[in-house]
Amino acid sequence: MRLYFALIAVLLISSGAAQSADISKPNNGGTVMKHELTPLPYAYNALEPYISEEIIKLHHDKHQAAYVAGLNKAEEELEKARVAGDYAVISYWERQLAFNGSGDLLHTIFFKNMAPNAGGEPNGDLLDQIKKDFGSFEAFKKQFSSSAATVEGSGWAALVWQPEYEKLYITQILNHQNNELAGAQPILVLDVWEHAYYLQYQNRRADWIENWWNVVNWSDVSKNLSAARSYVPEKVSVSM
Ligand code: MN
Question: Which of 18, 170, 189, 210 places its Cα 20 to 30 Å from the Cα of 162?
């Protein structure tokens, strides 16, 4: 009798384990994450007069939303390929993942990087690190603005923290996913795709960049830097 109950218990536990993890299925395609559009942290008109309500509404509700949809599509197609064991078009869907996933992630950082009644200059640890790595806040600002102005075609200027080098860098990101410094975490990004400014600034990208400094939320950038610093890679040690 005791053995009988023990057997039942083992059967129940093993069937429960099989239900909670699909790894026992021969056609298991792994996880398909359902991504959702991150809400805007302010009202559509909050960044006026520097960024019009119309731009923010289209930029968030249409452009970022399209990257989220493209990312979800890529997740589904990659799972289908794994289930079917058919990797013929894997490079196309992995590129779609990089483009749409990076597009979604950069826009989330970008919208959080801005706030009404913001602008001015950073302080504390962020300012110290900027001075250390760029010489001065003014020198940093000039390099960042020049970087944004000279992106060829569609892309971004990004201030990134590279944990291996423990240093801030400014990089140009082409489209959303190309030309990035490996392992670096973006803490401040500026969108210079035409959709970011054309309705208000037309072809005057330099005016867009100059006005954008008025809405930079330095306290958000500071938080991003301290979060990025929490990842400390293990250093390679030489043993003879
Ligand atoms: Mn954009």
Answer: 210
> Tell me, what amino acid is at 90?
I
Tens of pLDDT, residue by residue over 136-189, are 999 999 999 999 999 999 999 999 999 999 999 999 999 999 999 999 999 999
Distance (Å) from CA 45 to ligand 1 centroid: 17
Neighbours of ion ligand 1 (CB under 5 A): 191, 193, 196
Which letter does DSSP use for residue 64 in this model? I
CA of 103 to the centre of ligand 1 (A): 7
CATH number of this structure's domain 124-229: 3.55.40.20
Distance 62 CA to ligand 1 centre (A): 10
- What are the domain boundaries of the chain? 33-45+52-112, 124-229
70 C-alpha to ligand 1 centroid (Å) = 14
Tell me the HSE value of 141 on the side-chain side, using a 13 A CA sphere.
15
Q: What is the mean pLDDT of residues 185-210?
A: 98
Residue 48 phi/psi, 5-degree rounding, is -70, 150
Q: Say whether pTM exceeds 0.70.
A: yes
pLDDT, one tens digit per residue, over 27-72 is 689 999 999 999 999 999 999 999 999 999 999 999 999 999 999 9
From edge to edge, which strands make up the β-sheet containing 167-174?
Answer: 167-174, 155-162, 185-191
Span from the CA of 106 to the centroid of ligand 1 (angstroms): 8
